[in-house]
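User: Can you model how 1-O-phosphono-alpha-D-glucopyranose sits in this protein?
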Amino acid sequence: MIRKAVLPVAGWGTRFLPATKAMPKEMFPIIDKPVIQFIVEELLEAGVENIIFVTGRHKRPIEHHFDINTDLEKHLEEVGKKEVLENIREISHMINPIYLRQKEQLGLGHAVLTAEPAVGNEPFLVSLGDIILEKGKEVIEGMMEAHYRFGKSVIALHEVDEREVNKYGIARVKEIEEGVYIVEDLVEKPSPEEAPSNLAIVGRYVFTPRIFDKLKETKPDKGGEIQLTDAMRLLLEEEVIYAYRVDGRVYDTGNPVDYLKTVFEFALRREDVREELLTYIQEILSKQTQLIDKP
Ligand code: G1P
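Assistant: Here's the modeled complex, given as structure tokens:
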């Protein structure tokens, strides 16, 4: 049984500086819900309740978010904001998390290794805090089911534009049945010329505990970071790794442009925001055209 999920949230968020100097990128809002809450809800919907955050000293707001805030609850009660109060209470009781400190930011692989004492010798999930999946519950369930069938690690893959392969870990695979693959090779952030395909790792992994041994053997990359993808390459030498195709939209929130696209798409799905936003966009677009049309 897979009972535990590791959420590495200790990264600096350098792609978003200076916004991330004092604010975790995982707390950035998609309208009014922080990204990390989407990730946690996806796990809960798929039945995974043991959430292990690998955090850092600048990430306290994540802990506060899933904690009880009695002052705020009292205030909302006094002003009669019942619906918001209910929502706030629900978030406070959503999970009973474990927080582990990654004392030095030595890479994603190192962050996952930090969770070993809390995971122990059992298979576990890893969910990255900057990718939201439209069909998250189905993906996690599908990956767990593949793990139960094959008894091995399973990673989530999604087709990306060929110009974007350098943002992701990329896999070379062999399809064994509809939407399920055997991984043949992996490469972290290749150039479009080096990329073995356009199938990107999209932040969801099921690992056998053997990955911890491989993480201990993994050498730092050029930038001094222990990469999870490099540890998976070592794991490939002794265990089969399976891959699961992610259907549905994949929302990357890990860089400013993709984050804005994500916010925009979610906003267009919200009835209370949609109309006003569309009118505004049409207005600014027509102003832009006027500006461009002027000689
Ligand atoms: C990490 C992984 C990469 C993966 C990506 C998105 O990169 O190293 O393999 O494709 O997440 O899930 P990062 O975005 O942290 O640089």
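A couple of observations from the model: DSSP finds eleven helices and 13 strands in the chain. Residues 27 and 34 are 5 Å apart (CA to CA).
User: Helpful, thanks.
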